[in-house]
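Hi there, hope your week has been kind to you so far. Would you mind checking whether the tokens look sensible for this chain? I owe you a coffee for this, so here goes:
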Amino acid sequence: MQLSSTILDNFVNVGVIAIIIVFQQEIRRFLLLLGSRYNLMGRFSLDSFFMSKTPGMMSFYIKPLVRACEDFSKSKTGALIVITRRSELLDYVQTGELINAVISKQLLKSVFFKNSPLHDGALIISQSKIKAAGCILPVSQNMELPKQLGLRHRAALGITEATDAMAIVVSEETGRISFFNAGKGLYNIKSEELEKRLEEGVVNN
């Protein structure tokens, strides 16, 4: 009886370890989401409500964002932009320079200008404002990511694996636009597709 109990205990322990190994990415993402700090006032504010439900209000920040990405694509300006959803990513915001400004195409272009000290990091948009720039993001270890994609793409994939945020990357080498959500990427998309994906992501927030 004691031997059976010992064997059963060891089997359970091995099973738990096996589950952790198999589902480590999902568990990591869940714990990060659980540990993220939520701003309830921001989530239930009138501004947040109308911004997430009214297409006309969404255009106030989605349109300038898409237009800026179009310009980045034409000029082959590298960019990494993260759009928060339920979690405000405060831990990541604190790794960069706080801006807290209204979104505009010119401001986005200033941040990612090649001589700007902030252009190498990520820009985080939260509650319809540019929250911070030059932020450091977790890098994905996904081996299925195409080899030709660089650090920006890995960081965009990493933040969407770890949190519920969306991310946009404009390649400095090719000018191609990529969109990331829920740990998956869409590569070389047009601005119309980008706008559609952003609107869907905001409405479903």
Q: What stands out?
A: The radius of gyration is 20 Å. Residues 7 and 172 are 57 Å apart (CA to CA). Residues 2-22 form the longest helix (21 residues). Confidence is low (pLDDT under 50) at residues 36-57.
